[in-house]
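Trying the structure run again after the queue cleared.
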Amino acid sequence: MRNFLKQLATLFGVGLFPKGPGTAATVATIPLVFLLSKLGPLVYMGAIVLLLPVGIAACEVYEQDKGGHDHKEIVIDEVLGFLITMVWLPLTWQAILIGFALFRLLDITKPLFIGYLDKKIQGGLGVMVDDVAAGIIASLIMQVLYTQTNWLGSQVLVP
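Done. Tokens:
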């Protein structure tokens, strides 16, 4: 179980990508967004709710074994953050592109209280919570874009 959690923390090796492992993990999450969206909103939300404690445990185990905090190889937090960003949205190329860019911008720059959460909360929860916050803020912005504009191109669905 411990080895599985360590593998999960790196999204089974995606976090070992030499350049931009967080961005690589977000790209790797796109098929998961499609799969969960096809399974319905309850399954999608259930996956998010399940991934939070499992991701915290995975980050805890990884940090215990490697020492230190928030290693760049840990990318399960990006997976959860992007899943939150894309919840309840149409799966169009515009939504994926804007959601991806918005989540990565918030995750990298850590504006508002996101940076505070990143610095002040330690352990697995600290690794996950800033990405959850970035995902929630990105999701709220995406919902406004979805309901107030046609920027997400909801009329053209990705197969």
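Residues 17 and 24 are 7 Å apart (CA to CA). Worth checking whether this holds up in the mutant runs.
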